[in-house]
Design goal:
By secondary structure, the protein is an alpha+beta fold. The chain has a domain of 68 residues: Integrase, N-terminal zinc-binding domain (Arc Repressor Mutant, subunit A). Helix content is 43%, strand content 23%. It is built from eight helices and ten strands. The protein has a four-stranded antiparallel β-sheet. The chain starts with 5 loop residues before the first helix and ends with a strand.
Length: 243
């Protein structure tokens, strides 16, 4: 597709995430709280909590905020009782979308997410309608120019499932969610810094969008990501780099 570049899409997405950093603390605090409630307050024994604490550190969140969120999750202090909800739906051109939320008011969240879809040419589906188009995995993406040989050596030794290098030189490492923490530590120890990493729903196939379709799809994704209850948005859509 003319103008399509996976690296440009990643940089575009990262720039938008950085611009919304003010809301990031709220999302990370919710993730920490739920993770601590789910599997305990010790990050060393709770991989999900450890990942959430890493996100907090990357967002320069004060340790006091992190500790308070852990305490709330562990039931040591009062706080809202968040539940996790996943929405599945479609955007422009049949692009699949998964929206993961944490909320203390299910009715509000359902209404807000449905509105963001319908206002921007999308529609909500039923549970299971699009999730089969994604792979739940750990993902690390390294910028073009990174040492493929070194990344491959560390990744394979630490239990990666797949290493993909595209025509631009972008390197993607994929692993089981349960191996994410081990692989992340291995990359840190080797001073290999991915541009983006996390436990994600990775699209198995891409829906390429251009022009007006790309603009409308981006507007829908922005509307979803701006909602306070939304933690993550995953999509099969890729937009041309001019968008």
């Amino acid at each position: 597709m003319a103008g399509h570049s996976k690296w440009a899409n990643i940089q575009h997405r990262k720039g938008r995430q950085d611009a919304k950093r003010g809301k990031l603390w709220t999302k990370v605090i919710r993730e920490i709280t739920v993770a601590a409630r789910e599997a305990g307050p010790d990050p060393d024994a709770n991989p999900r909590l450890r990942l959430a604490c890493e996100k907090a550190a990357a967002a320069n969140m004060p340790k006091d905020n992190v500790n308070r969120a852990i305490q709330r999750g562990a039931g040591e202090s009062d706080g809202a009782n968040f539940e996790e909800i996943r929405f599945e739906g479609y955007g422009v051109g049949g692009a699949a979308v998964i929206v993961d939320c944490m909320t203390d008011n299910r009715q509000r969240t359902v209404s807000d997410v449905r509105h963001a879809f319908s206002k921007n040419g999308g529609n909500l589906g039923i549970d299971g309608s699009v999730v089969f188009q994604f792979q739940h995995c750990g993902q690390f993406i390294f910028a073009p120019g990174s040492s493929e040989e070194k990344i491959m050596e560390v990744a394979l030794e630490a239990g990666a499932d797949d290493i993909i290098t595209d025509s631009e030189g972008l390197i993607e490492v994929v692993c089981l969610p349960t191996h994410y923490a081990e692989l992340n530590q291995a990359f840190n120890d080797a001073a290999l810094v991915p541009e983006i990493h996390g436990v994600v729903m990775k699209a198995l196939n891409e829906t390429e969008l251009e022009g007006d379709d790309a603009a409308v799809m981006q507007k829908m994704l922005d509307a979803l990501e701006s909602l306070d209850d939304v933690q993550e948005v995953f999509t099969t859509a890729v937009m041309d780099e001019t968008e």
